[in-house]
Amino acid sequence: xxxxxxxxxxxxxxxxxxxxxxxxxxxAEQMCSDAVRALVNSDAALAQKVISDDVILDHxxxxxxxxxxxxxxxxxxxxxxxxxxxxxxxxxxDLERVGDLGKNTAKRVIAVQGTGVPRKLARGLEHLxxxxxxQLKDVLDVYATRSAEKAEAIRSRDEEIDxxxxxxxxxxxxxxxxxxxxxxxxxHLLFCAKNIERIGDHATNIAETIYYMxxxxxxxxxxxxxxxxxxxxxxxE
Amino acid sequence: MNMMSESAVEKALDQxxxxxxxxxxxxxxxxxxxxxxxxxxxxxNVRENTVTALIGPSGCGKSTFLRCLNRMNDTIENxxxxxxxxxxxxxxxxxxxDVVELRARVxxxxxxxxPFPKTIYENISYGPRIHGLSKNKADMDQIVExxxxxxxxxxxxxxxxxxxxxxxxxxxxxxxxxxxxxxxxPEVILMDxxxxxxxxxxxxxxxxxxxxxxxxxxxxxxxxxxxxxARVSQRTAMFHLGQLVEENDTDKMFTNPDDQRTQDxxxxxxx
Lengths: 237, 271
Hints:
The structure holds two protein chains of two kinds. By secondary structure, chain A is mainly α. Chain A contains seven helices and no strands. In chain A, 80% of the residues lie in helices and 0% in strands. Chain A starts with 7 loop residues before the first helix and ends in a 22-residue tail after the last helix. Chain B is α/β, with parallel strands linked by helices. Chain B has a domain at 24-112 and 187-267: P-loop containing nucleotide triphosphate hydrolases (Rossmann fold, 3-Layer(aba) Sandwich), CATH 3.40.50. In chain B, β1 (22-33) and β2 (36-47) form a beta hairpin. The longest helix of chain B is centred in the middle third of the chain and has 14 residues, at 137-150. Chain B is globular and about 55 Å long. Chains A and B meet through α3 of A and α9 and α11 of B.
């Protein structure tokens, strides 16, 4: 933002929100990457750390909410300032959800610890999580620059994650059909895959919010989707 | 009570507004105070049954423009107005226009409440009397009551109509001035910072009144309070250095204005 407010305390409040969002983003990213690492390495200690980190993220979201409410009450923001504050609230809630998804994945580490994760599936999960985390990292970088064009570019990339998720879903089904003893582990892994796919969705939400904050308009058109898992296995003639 | 729900009334009004013809049209309006030019070719149309707010920093020309709309600038020596302003189809700067009649059609409410040092009744009845709007005492009583009703002041003053208008509180005095403006059945009401001398409660009452008056009158309001413009108006015009920078729907103006200068001004930023 080129110009500054006549009231410098107002700028400080907005900067606080944006700094806290960036911190939340960093932590959410770390949690998700740790959760997947804990899963493929069956690392219970790391999983436990992810679970306890979620408290910090929840707390940060509440603090951002409180600060935003106070800023609205004191400053009666309009135009870009108002969009900035409302956007902060939305992004904070998306990041909080990302943290929850990381935590949920971490919780499943203990359940699949006994059997371990088959190498091939582990690679698939890692690949999915790489895609989702790049998406999350990029969207946080865009948040720092507030570029509407880049936000829109990120939004169109969610398709790739959806396609990867569908293929993983298919693979897990095959494992379960091969040997019923795989069902417990595979079901947990299916939830983990879904969690990771959802992280990509939240990153896309954040990209849309950034687009709105910058331009004041909603991004046009439906977001691209390539998740056909909801019809997978349906009996077709 | 009216059976039409509040939101239905709003909707009907908004519909009326979007179809609204332009009650007043300002074309290439420029104003000079002696050598100094205060307004530069302003093109601004005022829609019927709409509250139009004029905003902008001090000295931007918003009050100057407002005062052009009922030729209040005529009273200032050295002041010269060029361009054209019409009320319906009448050119208000035409030589054949009776300025006194014009000011009855386009009433004005000022920053500081300025009731006449007379009774509440006489404050209201003065205008209708000089314009010959009433035939007899009963007629006049009716005009006074209706005007005070419309201004939301009747309940508070009906038992003391013959006490001095200056004895009322600031907020009541301002509503008395609005009642006085209404009494001559104007078509347009101009308000120059009508709430800047009032406390928040009196301000809220005047704003509520503006909201209600919109159904029957066309209102143009100059205000320094961005929030007030956002609260009471449907259209907002932003002035800067004697120029009209942007005119837009108020909702758009306060969420996503088109012009950077508007954005900087309403957000309280350095340009």
